[in-house]
Here is the input.
Amino acid sequence: MGGNIYIYIAVMSLVSFAVRVLPLTLIRGQIKSRFIRSFLYYVPYVTLAVMTFPAIVETTQSPVAGALALAAGVGLAFAGAGLFPVAVCCCLVVLAVEGVLVA
Here is the structure.
């Protein structure tokens, strides 16, 4: 097991390096396809959402609190609220719901 960790790290490093280098070597010039450009534009947002969503529901003591906070945050964001007010409201929703559910 001890020697295998270096193999795992080496493979992980190669894969990470390949993901970053292959697009630079295979794609020369500007991408003209509207579909690919829009796809690449939204990749960071989708990645952030995929990493964040499970934590929203699983980090709280009750999944209901996380789901309600998520709904409140999405509602405030659609209403035009900034990042800080949305975060504060979501925290308050979790505190309130968990206070009611735990008490």
About this structure: The two ends are 47 Å apart (CA to CA). Residues 4-102 form one domain. The longest helix spans residues 34-59.
